[in-house]
Automatic annotation (TrEMBL):
Keywords: Cell membrane, Lipoprotein, Membrane, Palmitate, Signal. Residues 1-27 form the signal peptide. The keyword Lipoprotein applies. PANTHER family: ARABINOSE-BINDING PROTEIN-RELATED (PTHR43649), POLYGALACTURONAN_RHAMNOGALACTURONAN-BINDING PROTEIN YTCQ (PTHR43649:SF33). This is Sugar ABC transporter substrate-binding protein. The keyword Lipoprotein applies.
Amino acid sequence: MPGRQSRRSMLAAITALPLTGALSACSGNDSASSGSSSTSGTKSSRSTTTITFWSALRGSQEVVDAFNKTHDHIRVAFEQIPSGTSGGYLKLSNAARAGNAPDVATIEYPQVPGYAIDGVARDITDMISDRLRAKLLPQALGLTTFEKRTYSVPLDVEPMVLHYRKDLFDEYGFEVPTTWDEYTELARAVRRTGGKRKVTFFSTDMGQFSGWAWAAGARWFDTSKGAWNVSLADAPTRRVSRYWQRLIDEDLVYVNPPNSREADAQVGNGLVLTRHSGAWDAGAQMNARPQQKGLWRIAPQPQWDPAKPALGTNGGSTFAITKDSKHPEAAMEFIEWQVSHPDALRARLSSGASSQYPAVTELIGVGRAAFDRSYYGGQDIYTLFEQEARKISDGWVWGPRMTATGQVMSDAFARAAAGSGTIESSMRAAQDGTMPDLKALGLNTTQHST
């Protein structure tokens, strides 16, 4: 298909574009697209182009409605799809195999390389305007750009932060930890208070752990030498693994399946004093536990070296134009409006409390204005998010089959929690489980075992 890099080239190696070169120096204006037509002006004489859009994101219907009301030459037909690998992603993959994928699809960052390799996500490098490139946070654009080719446009990027129960910190005289050593001491102090309270829970999924490993300097996948080098148990990952293993062995943290009833009950009943998650989770907490209004605050994640702060992310979505799109230019106009226009974010936020951190940073003010600060005791959490987003480390590359990698990792974490293995051995198992999938794709691979 014109404008797309060949699958053979993609399979040879996908090299992440250095973030210093990800953006073009180009001044932009505040409009979403120079081709947009508003109902407030003269009715366009152009015929209407209909494009299809699939997403599991809350607020997408409101965004589509706002777009359709203000654009007369493009109409977006929206379909809400289930979230998760067995829901929306399975539906998208099946549709692509049948040749009828939607024009625009929402893809989370870990899945972007896989959909690019499979040829589902179109190469949109030459379709992204310099204006939009200049607005996007470099770290976000870097996560969707490989071999200097871009395959999706970021909507949000979610730096990891620390949520803590200020009321309980005040009650026990605890200080907010700034280093991981201080966090260990906090965990022990919480345990000494007696009862069932613990400092946090370790979730047996990939999302939380990958953010910690990323911040520690891990690089699970590296393509800089012309092949996919896999190193899921590199030195930074082992450091993180052993840190959390110690907390588990000392019975200082709960260990839970992802999105479990156990974790929900622990937070709801005040049994954990801190939580680790992306910026988006501040809004999710408000929606899930309105009765805890005023009890929580948000702080930066603890650091290994405060002099050299670094962060990973937890969450975030992008928009891709599929290979089957018959109207890619119209699809790109919709995407640009959706990620960069204030009215798009206002429409999304109208569906309920949200704290997503926009990849187009000039929209931060829109999010800040819509957010009810009273839940977090008046704290300006967006100023914190803005500060933390700058700490997201460059160079992280997601692998070609992160769904499978994450499943092996999650299963191994669960076994380790039951006493069979450790977090470190879980990462080695995840690496072993990843290699067959990569080789089945025909990728040139190497692995670094330690």
